Amino acid sequence: MTAASDNVSKMISQRTLNMSESVTLLMARLGAELKEKGKDVISLSLGEPDFDTPEFVKEAAKKAVDENYSHYTPVPGFKDLRQAVCDKFKRDNNLDYTPEQIVVSTGAKQSLMNVILATVNPGEEVILPAPFWVSYTAMVEFAEGKAVIVNTDMDTDFKITADMLEAAITPKTKAFLFSNPCNPSGAAYSNDELKALVEVFKKHENILIISDEIYEYINFEGKNSSLAAFPEIYNRVVTVNGLSKGFAMTGYRLGYIGAPLAIAKACSKIQGQVTSGANAVTQRAAITALKEDPSCINFMKEKFLSRRDLMITELKKIEGLEVNTPNGAFYLFPDISAFFGKSFNGKEMKSSADICMYLLEAGLVATTPGEAFGNPKNIRLSYATSEENLIEAAARMNKVLSALE
């Protein structure tokens, strides 16, 4: 390293140095690098549907281009898109929002960051049931808040209970943040399970509740339940959603929130100084997607369900690996701690990160370590790929894990 480059390195802010890299993106990158070297890597690391965006959405995007939607957009989104979001909330979730309570962003990730920056002060605590999505902790810490982790495990299907929630609340608690269905566990809370949490929130009126429902349409038990549907806490809930998962529109980058008016205005204020309005063509395509009956994308959910059952069957052939049956999203979150302490060619497996690197290097299967999600005994597997890939990936995992001594 030259003196000049060393000086540039010293210019990086402490905020950035303290921020961890997204482990899901890291594992995907490592897998891609091996592929570029000619290795036959099967990736189970990224949370992206392997379906193409529906034709009717693509046609709407093409029409928007032809109609010259190429100019700046309003910071919170086009008015008719925000109305379409309101209509979707009413149709699917029985939630009443006005367009002024909706903020459209460049993906649900930006929506979440907006909400946290708009509400969390330095030192305030945000309760995160583990496992949690990898970016939650980084977002809270970026806002100088404190992430309070509540550990769950396979015994409760990785769901937080009312007693666990109550025990985590302190005078410094500012917010509760979770995903339903959950990334990475696939857990989907029933209405009764959410009602039990609501009873706790009713006793603590100063806690903001952030409900990330990006996997809403991938719930194998039926219709997804929203926390904001409970009138007792409606005025304290921010509902986060988007089009990436349900409509296979990851590259379109569009997320949105329904929030109390003051929070919506604060999020719009932040967004106005960072990115301004979301992509114009994407917004026009999003209107078409939101207006469509969700049953039009049921074929994706049905395929995910079939893959879930197939992958569980294949994983149960691996002695020492434990897996439950989640009822949402497109992930499995098996416990691989039985392999800790075992070795291959003198290399000891001390953590799920070690296991994931071993699976990638020896088995050419890209997975994601549970440490990133707050559960160090587990690894995340995405089954958003072909059945052939899933069968082969499980066989490779079985082979290399069986080789550990």
Describe the structure concisely.
The protein is α/β, with parallel strands linked by helices and 405 residues long.
What does this structure look like?
The chain has helices spanning 3-9, 14-18, 23-36, 55-66, 79-93, 108-119, 135-142, 162-168, 191-203, 261-274, 280-291, 298-315, 352-363, 387-402, and strands spanning 42-43, 102-105, 125-130, 146-151, 173-179, 208-212, 237-242, 255-258, 331-332, 343-344, 347-348, 365-366, 368-369, 379-382. With 405 residues, it is of the alpha/beta class. The protein has a seven-stranded mixed sheet with strand order 2-8-7-6-5-3-4, with helices on both faces. The radius of gyration is 21 Å and the shape is globular. The model has no long low-confidence stretch (mean pLDDT 95).
Helix/strand structural class: alpha/beta
Stretches where pLDDT falls below 50 for ≥5 residues?
none
The helix content is 40-55%
Q: Total number of β-strand segments?
A: 14
How many domains? The number is 2
| Tally of helical segments | 14
Find the CATH superfamily of the largest domain.
Answer: Type I PLP-dependent aspartate aminotransferase-like (Major domain)
- Return the CATH class of the largest domain: Alpha Beta
Question: What fraction of the residues are assigned to beta strands by DSSP?
Answer: 5-15%
Biggest sheet: strands, sense, closure?
7 strands, mixed
| Estimated radius of gyration | 21 Å
Task: Quickly give the CATH architecture of the largest domain.
Answer: 3-Layer(aba) Sandwich
Shape: globular
Distance between the termini: 41 Å
Order of helices and strands: HHHEHHEHEHEHEHEEEHHHEEEHEEEH
Overall mean pLDDT stands at 95
Q: And the CATH topology of the largest domain?
A: Aspartate Aminotransferase, domain 2
Strand order of the largest sheet: 2-8-7-6-5-3-4
